[in-house]
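User: quick one
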Amino acid sequence: MPRSKRSPSPAFGQSPTYSTAEVARLWGVSESSVKRWSDNGLLPCVRTPGGHRRFTLQALLEFQRTTGEKLLAEQGQGAGLSDVELAIAARDWSQLQMVYYKVAIAGDEATGAALLEQLYRSGLSPVEITEQLLTPVLHLIGDRWRRGELNIWEEHLASQVTLAATEHLHRQVPHAPPQGRLALCGCPEGDLHEIALHLVVEVLETEGWRVLSLGPNTPLFSFADAIQRFAPHLICISATIVQDLERLRRDYGHFYQMARRHGARIVIGGAAFADPQVRSIFVHDFQAAGLSDFVEYLRREFPTVPPSER
Ligand code: B12
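Assistant: Done. Structure below.
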């Protein structure tokens, strides 16, 4: 599918418009065909102040459904694209978020996995898919749950769909050659939010790391024992909520000593670290805002070493 120029995502629910060139690329037809259909009224457009044609998604879908189906077929392009395919080609994130939101709260793992795979095959990286689609949708689900607009079971289904779909996506992605580096990852005691942790593990594996994940809800004293046992190069902590701050404060000293003794770097991430009190306990080497700055950190601090120099 052609990759269109990325345009800024409109707000959730706001309809984007497409230029003549973008529509021609989406349908695989010439710009003059698009202009002809527009001029004879088959494909309505709006004009910019400079006189250029812009087409709404609704106009494109309407054209496909009616007259356009035959015209597109005549040009050898089949019956056109589905609205999801159009949204993928146009990188229409607000539309795609809406689609994923519905799929997720309906518990439709197969469609969720297929959508992520389609996005990946259209040229997007798993990190881009996470940051533009999954994270905003899960945050929206959290907000709607808090406002009482979603049931707890819908939030649970959305979590399961996201875990299954990202695992499916991860299986499609080639991994960098192993560099002999080990990362130890987990969420602190009391925190059951494991989706970000899974995404971090997947990023590390894609970058060629061997990963041991201790999962959610890991007491820091036991995490520290694992550091002693495995001597990892990197420790990743994902924390979304903190249940018992004093307990974490008590255990983190020993955890930190263990990490330093083994020369391991510590990376933290997650909403819990927005609180300066929590951040001050978890002395760290890097705090990630998301996955893209994490990948940058990994590539900067742990550059690829050719096998001959290892
Ligand atoms: C799904 C979910 C759950 C699921 C988790 C299921 C699972 N298997 O993981 C369940 C149902 C268990 C759950 C339970 C609860 N939840 Co909850 N949950 C969520 C929800 C909707 C999504 C969380 C998520 O996965 N986000 C997606 C990830 C990808 O985004 P992220 O965490 O922001 O991570 C990004 C970055 O921060 C970064 N990152 C994160 N960690 C790391 C680590 C490293 C190393 C790196 C490099 C990067 C990194 O990268 C990620 C990708 O961009 C959030 C809403 C939200 N705003 O997140 C509420 C939310 C976190 N939950 C909330 C609450 C209140 C609860 C409960 C207390 C509810 C209750 N009364 O029982 C319990 C607590 C359970 C516990 N003890 O942990 C609140 C927390 C409010 C607060 N700050 O205190 C939220 C914000 C909902 C809300 N809007 O109120 N929850």
